[in-house]
Design a protein that fits this description.
elongated, Tetracycline Repressor, domain 2, 191 residues
């Protein structure tokens, strides 16, 4: 059974673009460089993604969809609260392990004002997805707490993990991420 070469090319472009954005951000994304990386002409990148914004929106949308699937699966698992939080922080750690890259939507957030609206929508959706999931997990642990307080704490956890990733990336040392996350856990942030 053969695969559609257009789909393969589109996937190759998305994979290459993801690595570039996670390492260097949106503003560095170049169709010419992507084409070179994938082994196609720049016009072929434009065929699949007419603009840089279209490419970034597709990339961020896929990233958010992957996060939703992962978080839904994690929430449905028999893992306890501590295991869920460990698995949650581990997904951010993995980006650092991949050649000191950042969470895709985290690095896009740093360039938020430069992003096309469609990309901003996906970045905002990523924050909402993470915050909502964390609030739901916290609500299971603290069923009597005010939902607004849980949502505020969830946002603090999300921001703290993104921040830990940023600091560790700046230091070029994934162990820094581990130390920061351990300090958060010891301070009770995840409880």
């Amino acid at each position: 059974m053969s695969t559609d070469p257009r789909t393969d090319t589109r996937e190759s472009i998305l994979q290459a673009a993801r690595l570039v954005v996670q390492a260097h951000g949106y503003n560095v994304l170049s169709f010419r460089e992507l084409a070179k990386e994938v082994g196609i002409k720049s016009a072929s990148v434009h065929y699949h993604f007419p603009t840089k914004g279209d490419l970034a929106a597709a990339l961020a949308g896929r990233y958010v969809d992957e996060a939703v699937a992962f978080l839904d699966e994690l929430r449905a698992s028999p893992a306890d609260h501590g295991q869920r939080m460990e698995a949650y922080t581990a997904i951010f750690r993995r980006a650092l392990e991949n050649d000191n890259r950042m969470c895709l939507c985290g690095i896009l957030s740093a360039e938020y004002r430069d992003l096309p609206d469609a990309v901003r929508v996906e970045v905002d959706r990523f924050t909402s997805v993470n915050t909502r999931w964390l609030a739901e997990v916290l609500a299971e642990r603290h069923p009597r707490k005010n939902p607004l307080d849980l949502t505020s704490r969830a946002l603090a956890i999300f921001a703290a993990i993104e921040g830990a990733q940023l600091v560790a990336r700046g230091r070029g040392d994934v162990k820094v991420f581990d130390e920061i996350v351990s300090a958060y856990a010891a301070a009770g942030l995840f409880d």
